[in-house]
Amino acid sequence: MKISTLxxxxxxxxxxxxxxxxxIEFWYGNTGNVETAIKAQCDAFNAAQSEHRVTCVGQGSYxxxxxxxxxxxxxxxxxxxxxxxxxxxxxxxxxxxxxxxxDILPDVKWDSYIAGARAYYETSDGKLYSQPYNSSxxxxxxxxxxxxKAGITSTPTTWExxxxxxxxxxxxxxxxxxxxxxxxxxxxxQFSARHGLPIASKHNGYDGLDAEYVFNTTFxxxxxxxxxxxRKEGLVKIxxxxxxxxYTAAFNAGECAMMEGSSGSYAASAxxxxxKYEITVGxxxxxxxxxxxxxxxxxxxxxxxxxxxxxxxEGAKAxxxxxxxxxxxxxxxxATGYVPVTGDVLDAIAESGEGKSPKYATAAIGIESMNQxxxxxxxxxxxxxxxxxxxxxxxxxxxxxxxQQTMQAALDSAKKRGDELLRRFEQTYKGVxxx
Length: 435
Prior knowledge:
Layout: H1 3-11, E1 22-28, H2 32-48, E2 52-58, H3 62-74, E3 81-85, H4 89-93, E4 98-99, H5 101-104, H6 115-118, E5 131-136, E6 138-143, H7 144-149, H8 159-171, E7 178-179, H9 184-194, H10 201-204, H11 219-232, E8 236-237, H12 247-252, E9 258-262, H13 266-273, E10 279-283, E11 298-305, H14 310-324, H15 326-336, H16 344-351, H17 361-370, H18 386-401, H19 407-428
Parallel strand pairs: 1-2, 1-3, 7-8, 7-9
Antiparallel strand pairs: 3-11, 4-11, 5-11, 6-9, 6-10
Helix pairs in contact: 1-2, 2-15, 9-11, 15-16, 18-19
């Protein structure tokens, strides 16, 4: 459904008019085509009924939104609904600023949410703290046109095949066979999850605040060292190596032939490829000796903040119900590439007659990726000050890519600095039991 027609279509389903019960605010952190889709959903909700009105306010980024929400909560002028990203989950759970969404909406069939989408945002006993919204996961993109020019006729599925293809592309004169940005989410979190590797002890913090980082001792360390060597060989590039200066922009422009990227990147990539190249999207590559496990959910979920009256909470519930509808999830997937979060959406896509449409290309593959066999170490990440840790990890590993230290030294340093953050967080919440 086109964004321009979404509100009009929703208005056709509007019930009888009634007096407006509540004006509520929803703060979100996205920009670009995702922000356009969010605004369209807000307009559609307001057009579909007259009892409540939602005002959706962009904050520019997840991090900025998180900082502003904390400040607003302290000043008692915070929104009813706030979108927070995956890395801020534990901070929100222990903030005492939000109400578990499952407590507010106890009659919702929460078990309809796919395991990969809900695991990150639920308590140890399975209660959802927030409603998964713009859910992404890591996928593998290729420029089939460029691969075929180099004689590569099948899409690589293992890292061994990716590097073999990269060598063929380089031999054929391709300057950028594979591209990544070295982001923590891609090269550490998603890699570790699907290979069944822990990032930290205590099952990545789910079993206690006294967790310690262990990623520097797992096979993830070998993979990151491989990326350094492959970059030296001219097979892998990072942001700074590309003409575009950004890995997704480099892939979208045809500069780079293969990319590991978020499912949320698909819509922009597919649009950029129109009339120029053929795009493929599939499961992120594995090392051949490792069984595949689930990838983690990325993106963000929506929390209900404390301190609002009954009418505002009713408005929040109505908006969350609206976003959960299959047709709304279908719209959001088609507009952005983010993955549906409830199991009934795949059936709805199939019944729509557009199951094979490119606009839904990430739906089935994204759900398949997140629904692979799960281990206690691939459930998610429940570590304190994790937003800050991501910055530490990138800072240290970028030094390794720049040749200023070995990758192992970078990971050892990131582990040490990360553990310091964990101990500070543990002291801040001393005696607090994890949800």
